[in-house]
Design a protein that fits this description.
The chain is 57% helix and 8% strand. With 247 residues, it is mainly alpha-helical. The chain folds into two domains: 3-156, no CATH class; 163-245, no CATH class. Helix 3 (78-85) runs antiparallel to helix 5 (110-118). The radius of gyration is 24 Å and the shape is elongated. The two termini are 37 Å apart. Pfam families: RDD (PF06271). This is RDD family membrane protein YckC.
C-alpha cells in the first residue's frame, strides 16, 4: 500500500495511505450491487405497470424508451452524485472506508468528481476495468486515469491513529470555553491548525505559529486574549472540541 503525501493550503505535508486496488474493487462491487438492486426494483415496477396497468398502453416505443432512460438515469449518475454529496464517498466507499481527495490539499469539488466520472468510460467500461486496475497498481499514488486528470487520489481511512493525530483534545467536564467564534471553523480547519501547531511547536518555529494565529484571527474574527500565541492555539483547539461535542 503506497504512501500519499498531500501538501495542504497551510503548506503542511500530511501523509495518507492510498487505497489498495482490492479496496477499490470491493467498493466498486458494493456500488454495483446497489445499482443492480435499484434496477431490479425499477424493472419490476415498470413491467408491472406495463403488463397490468393501463398507464403505458398508449405510448409508442420511443416514449417508453424515454421513460426507461429517465427511470435508470440515477444509475448513470450514481457515483458523481454521491461523491458530490458525501465529499468523495459513495455507499461502497463508505463501507470499505476509502475516500476521494485532492492531492493539492483542497477539498475535491463537483468538477473533479465529474472528470473522474467521465473517465470511468475509459478506466472501467472498456476492457471490464482492466485499465483501471493496471493504472492503480502501477501508479505511485494509486491513481486511475480519471484521478490523474482530475488531480485526485483515493485514500484509505483505516489507518490506526491516536488522539495526537486527530482534532480531538482532552478536556474536563468543568472546562469553560473562551472563544465562541471558534465554531466558524471546520473539522478540516482544526485538523490543519493542530498539525501545523504541533510541528511548529516542536521546532520552536515562532514565525509559523504567528502566521497561524494571524490566519485564525482573520478567518474567524477571534482575537487573541491571552497574549501568548501558543496558549491561544491550545485554547482554540480545546474550545472547538467543547462546542462540537456539546452541539
Amino acid at each position: 500500500m503506497s504512501e500519499l503525501s498531500i501538501n495542504t493550503t497551510q503548506n503542511v505535508k500530511i501523509n495518507f495511505k492510498a487505497a489498495s486496488a482490492g479496496e477499490r474493487i470491493g467498493s466498486y462491487f458494493i456500488d454495483l450491487a446497489v445499482k443492480i438492486a435499484y434496477g431490479i426494483v425499477i424493472s419490476l415496477i415498470f413491467f408491472y405497470a406495463l403488463q397490468l396497468g393501463k398507464l403505458l398502453d398508449s405510448l409508442d416505443t420511443w416514449s417508453r424508451m424515454s421513460i426507461l432512460l429517465f427511470l435508470y438515469f440515477p444509475i448513470i449518475i450514481y457515483s458523481i452524485t454521491l461523491e458530490s454529496i458525501f465529499e468523495g464517498q459513495t455507499i461502497g466507499k463508505k463501507l470499505v472506508k476509502i475516500k476521494v481527495v485532492k492531492i493539492d490539499g483542497y477539498q475535491a469539488g463537483f468538477g473533479d468528481y465529474l472528470m473522474r466520472w467521465f473517465f470511468r468510460l475509459v478506466d472501467i467500461s472498456i476492457l471490464s476495468g482492466i485499465i483501471a486496475v493496471v493504472t492503480v497498481v502501477s501508479s505511485k499514488k494509486g491513481q486511475r486515469l480519471g484521478d490523474m486528470v482530475a488531480g485526485t487520489a483515493v485514500i484509505t481511512l483505516k489507518s490506526t491513529i491516536n488522539i495526537s493525530h486527530t482534532i480531538l483534545e482532552e478536556i474536563g467536564e468543568a472546562y469553560v470555553p473562551t472563544y465562541p467564534l471558534v465554531i466558524k471553523l471546520s473539522d478540516n480547519d482544526m485538523r490543519i491548525i493542530k498539525e501545523t501547531f504541533q510541528k511548529a511547536d516542536s521546532r520552536n518555529d515562532y514565525e509559523t505559529i504567528h502566521k497561524l494565529v494571524s490566519k485564525i484571527e482573520t478567518v474567524s474574527g477571534i482575537k487573541n486574549q491571552s497574549g501568548n500565541e501558543r496558549d491561544f492555539l491550545r485554547v482554540i483547539l480545546k474550545d472547538y472540541n467543547f462546542y462540537t461535542q456539546n452541539m
